[in-house]
Specification:
- The complex is a heterodimer of chains A (about 300) and B (about 240).
- Chain A is about 35% helix and about 30% strand.
- In chain A, the strands form 3 sheets. In chain A, strands 6-7-8-3-9-10 form a 6-stranded mixed sheet, with helices on both faces. In chain A, strands 2-1-4-5 form a 4-stranded antiparallel sheet, with helices on one face.
- Chain A has about 300 residues and is an alpha/beta fold.
- The longest helix of chain A has 16 residues, at about 160-175.
- Chain A folds into 2 domains: about 5-215, 3-Layer(aba) Sandwich (Rossmann fold); about 220-290, Alpha-Beta Plaits (2-Layer Sandwich).
- Chain A has 10 helices and 14 strands.
- Chain B has one domain (about 5-230).
- Chain B has helices at about 5-15, 15-40, 45-70, 75-80, 85, 90-125, 130-155, 160-175, 180, 185-195, 210-230.
- Chain B contains 11 helices and no strands.
- By secondary structure, chain B is mainly alpha-helical.
- Classes of the chains: A alpha/beta (about 300), B mainly alpha (about 240).
- The interface between A and B is medium-sized, with 39 and 30 residues.
- Chain B: Keywords: Membrane, Transmembrane, Transmembrane helix.
- Chain B: This is ABC transporter permease.
- Chain B: Pfam families: ABC2_membrane_2.
Chain lengths: ~300, ~240
Amino acid sequence: MTTLSIDHVSRWFGNVVAVNDITMTIGPGVTGLLGPNGAGKSTLINMMGGFLAPSTGSVTLDGRPVWRNEQIYRQIGIVPEREAMYDFLTGREFVVANAELHGLGDKAARQALATVEMEYAQDRKISTYSKGMRQRVKMASALVHEPSLLLLDEPFNGMDPRQRMQLMDLLRRMGDEGRTVLFSSHILEEVEQLAWHIEVIVAGRHAASGDFRRIRRLMTDRPHRYLVRSSDDRALAAALIADPSTSGIEVDLAEGALRVQAVDFGRFTTLLPRVAREHGIRLLTVSPSDESLESVFSYLVAA
Amino acid sequence: MYDPTVARLTYRALLGRKRALVLGALPLLLIVISIAVRALTGADDQTAADVLGGLALATMVPIIGVIAGTGAIGPEIDDGSVVYLLSKPLKRPTIIFTKLIVAIAVTMVFSALPTLLAGLILNGNGQQIAVAYTVAALVASIAYAALFLLLGTVSRHAVVFGLVYALVWEALFGSLVPGARTLSVQQWSLAVAHKVAGGDLVTSDVGLTTATTLLVVVTVLATWYAGRKLRTLTLAGEE
């Protein structure tokens, strides 16, 4: 049972704060590190992997420091986001080299290649691999010493749906075996499908932590804002505000539209067309004005 | 201290197709020039010393040193693949020491060996000139490899800085400013060569004791510092 502890960790680069006072504990099972691009996920993962010193705070694995401690890599497997990986080697040569660097031999490399189902292409040069194949060979190189902690930075980037499913199955298996698996992603659905536990970071801050259902609820229960244009905006506004699913409406004269704030997303989406039909109003535009992931995240930060 | 896997990876990266071509081009040029000079002027000790000193030791050895020394680690740090070495229970000085050995070996093979061949072609090792310059090239290979390996570890523009040092400092300043010669790997190695050849054909501005001391100090310091830098190497994220 391996536990990674991040204790009041901050990291700044010059004047820019990339990670701001984050404290979290990552235990066995699959944890998703969720956040928009540029939130500081990679910086945090680099600190977890011992490639970057925290400016303040500490990262420890079962009580032992990660930074400047080469021996810690007996426990840690790392799948970096960057593509570069000795392209002049074949997949097998690459994984064998990684095994040797751990003091292991061919057998461990063979096993790791079998785990990621890459034996069929193991004798091809890495330079000829697709993104998904590279990702799997990277996985094999990280698994070769059977680490108890696996860190993956955006592992699903650029993978096709089938490869994504295979990798998810593999990570699930690792989690079931009692390993501590942490992966980062900026895509909510990925994290939701795979992670037992979610840590959300936004703009370098720890925004939320917990079971994905709770976080999902936070995300869907937030007020939704819509921009609505219709044949009779004021009549529609009057009809909508009568229902408790709507918490506010503004008539935007400049835009010639209504700005509607709904608190009950599910109810509002059925209410709007029904009300329009009942009052003989034609809906011309219905567009969510804050559906971007960033706005979901910023809502979480405020929550 | 020496890890065979790190060495294998480094050799294969260094002797990959493109870099091997660059590494091979200069020695080939030296051999061709030597054949031409021998054919045109016949065997002449002074000419041999001029070609080996001016072309082989002053130009070819440092350039090969730059390519091998920076190439042994720079590209890996640049593209981030060094993470596969760093995420292993390997001592950082072991990685540096291994890469140094490889860089030295490659520099020696691609610079000292051609120097010997060129010397034999030029005057058949008359007055020990071929052997003297070969020894100089061997000695210089060690110091250059260490210096440029350090440069490759600390700078993303290692090749440029390396070439500037090799060509501007060693070749240009070295011949114009007397003081610069004291701080020149080329002069240190010439001091060793002078000891081998004797006579006045191979000379150095630096005494043998000073030269060997500086060679050892520079090599050891550069290697130690590179190991230290690697230990705290920060891999920038994609963000």
